[in-house]
Write a structure and sequence with these properties.
By secondary structure, the chain is α/β, with parallel strands linked by helices. It has 4 helices and 8 strands, in the order βαβαββαββββα.
Length: about 160
């Protein structure tokens, strides 16, 4: 599977860019999956629901299924967080996996950047960041795209991964 990441600090526009890229690239006929890293505690389940009760009772995995989707939840129960490679191995093969986060991993990335956040550019110190998508001019030795120019960013990513 081909991989490409979207990185950036909080409120830089990563999720909006991911959403637009998924729509753009899948709209061109490619299959796309996403993987997002969460730095905080999250739960896709809700107290009181049967699947939540199964997990709370100590189930290692709970697979929840309907005619529209299925979700497999795995409780780490004190184990280390899964690596990006371990998680990617669980995905069904597709044309492209877009990864939000995992900025320290070695896959190629586009950095979402908004000047108003006051954060530094990750790209300055990270050669795996192949381009920057910004809401303002950026002086760097890599391609810079308008943060909202989804078509150009998608073209860049697809060219980079050979699709």
């Amino acid at each position: 599977m081909r991989l490409f990441g979207i990185v950036g600090y909080k409120n830089a526009g990563k999720t909006g860019l991911m959403e637009r890229l998924v729509a753009e690239i899948s709209g061109r006929g490619f299959t796309v999956s996403t993987l997002k890293h969460a730095h905080h505690r999250f739960d896709v389940d809700h107290p009181g629901k049967d699947s939540y009760r199964h997990r709370a009772a100590g189930a290692h995995q709970v697979l929840l299924s309907s005619r529209n989707r299925w979700a497999l939840m795995t409780e780490l129960q004190g184990q280390d967080e899964a690596t990006l490679d371990q998680l990617l191995a669980r995905l069904t093969p597709v044309d492209l996996v877009l990864i939000e986060g995992y900025k320290r991993d070695a896959h190629p990335k586009v950095e979402a950047f908004r000047a108003e956040t006051g954060n530094p550019l990750i790209a300055r110190d990270d050669p795996t960041v192949r381009a920057v998508a910004s809401d303002s001019p950026v002086d760097i030795d890599r391609p810079v795209f308008d943060l909202n120019d989804t078509t150009a960013i998608a073209d860049f990513i697809l060219t980079e991964v050979g699709l």
